[in-house]
Specification:
The chain contains two helices and two strands; from the N terminus they run ααββ. It is an alpha+beta fold. It has one domain. A two-stranded antiparallel ribbon has the order 1-2. The model has no long low-confidence stretch (mean pLDDT about 80).
């Protein structure tokens, strides 16, 4: 599933070179780029039935109401 963070990570650097963004916009874009990535850490999930391993990265919580 493609997320906004995936698009920002792939296209963000080139886009920022062509568009003038405020400091606030740059901070939000950076936080989104780091969301669900190794930058925020994560944990390993292992299926008890088949031993399949999946890495789940932590969220930046920008979309939560915490």
């Amino acid at each position: 599933m493609l997320e906004v963070a995936d698009i920002f990570r792939a296209c963000g650097p080139a886009w920022r070179r062509t568009v003038a963004l405020s400091l606030g916009q740059l901070k939000v874009m950076s936080a989104i780029e780091q969301c669900r990535s190794a930058a925020l850490g994560g944990h390993v999930l292992r299926c008890a039935g088949c031993d399949r391993i999946e890495v789940a990265y932590n969220s930046c919580l920008m979309g939560s109401s915490v």
